[in-house]
Write a sequence for this structure.
């Protein structure tokens, strides 16, 4: 799995989905690189099952910002008889109740539960959306059972977020900073289109472009080359490769900076040169998009 968005660290790797396949081509990923399938056990093993500090709910983050879908997708369970105060100042959220019953009460800031100006019944099949950034509310599960919901977020979460005492999720900037509010200058960074459609459905040359990671067969009988986005740990390997390739070498800090803060625009090529060993970095493209000119790619 890719690193959390440019935080310089990786999530534990997830399986490739083959363990869930019941028939068909074992190399299906080569033909459908954008397809993803995950089990609950994988989400838990990757540390993406978040239990609230209040111990009133847990949230399983099946899809996070690092997956580059343009949104995150969660299965959240509010414990029976419990309520939680939520105020998504930084996100929009779409919610579908899948099991259990409860209520959602809209309140003004500073109001307590029971003092709100509108209250709605929730049950299986009921949908609600929070799209204005100002919908303070209390979510309560019935005494009889947990309230289970499926929800999507934009900007996508990284997987570690929890509400602060004001009910707000932070957004995580590329440098890993938690922001509880942001200005217009951050909108383009936080609200990213899915990787597969950053240049439209026809790509940059009039045809659909593959998404990363992907595997290419460069020459007949040669070893396959695996292309992926950079993660924070790639910096030293890129620096060493530049030295051996006879390129003009920048400082190690430069390569670390690009892999940590511009990971979305650094592509790393790997090959498994020795059977049974980890793949080795054999090439890279390092660059960035100048601010305000997302149609331009500057190769360093």
């Amino acid at each position: 799995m890719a690193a959390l968005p440019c935080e310089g660290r990786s999530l534990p790797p997830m399986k490739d989905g083959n363990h869930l396949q019941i028939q068909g081509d074992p190399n299906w990923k080569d033909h459908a690189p954008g397809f993803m399938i995950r089990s609950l056990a994988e989400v838990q093993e990757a540390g993406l099952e978040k239990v609230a500090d209040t111990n009133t709910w847990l949230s399983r983050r099946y899809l996070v910002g690092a997956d580059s879908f343009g949104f995150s997708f969660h299965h959240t369970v509010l414990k029976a008889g419990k309520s939680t105060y939520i105020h998504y100042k930084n996100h929009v959220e779409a919610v579908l109740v899948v099991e259990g019953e409860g209520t959602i009460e809209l309140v003004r800031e500073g109001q307590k539960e029971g003092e709100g100006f509108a209250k709605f019944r929730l049950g299986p099949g009921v949908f609600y959306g929070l799209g204005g950034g100002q919908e303070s509310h209390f979510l309560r599960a019935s005494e009889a059972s947990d309230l289970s919901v499926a929800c999507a977020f934009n900007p996508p979460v990284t997987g570690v977020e929890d509400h602060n005492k004001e009910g707000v999720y932070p957004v995580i900037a590329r440098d890993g900073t938690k922001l509880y509010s942001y200005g217009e200058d951050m909108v383009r960074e936080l609200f990213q289109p899915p990787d597969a459609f950053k240049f439209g459905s026809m790509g940059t040359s009039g045809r659909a472009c593959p998404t990363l990671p992907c595997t290419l067969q460069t020459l007949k009988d040669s070893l396959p080359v695996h292309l992926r986005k950079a993660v924070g740990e790639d910096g030293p390997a890129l620096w060493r490769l530049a030295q051996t390739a006879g390129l003009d070498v920048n400082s190690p800090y430069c390569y670390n900076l690009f892999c940590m803060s511009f990971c979305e625009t650094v592509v790393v090529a790997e090959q498994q040169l020795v059977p049974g060993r980890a793949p080795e970095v054999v090439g890279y493209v390092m660059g960035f998009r100048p601010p305000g000119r997302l149609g331009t790619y500057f190769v360093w």
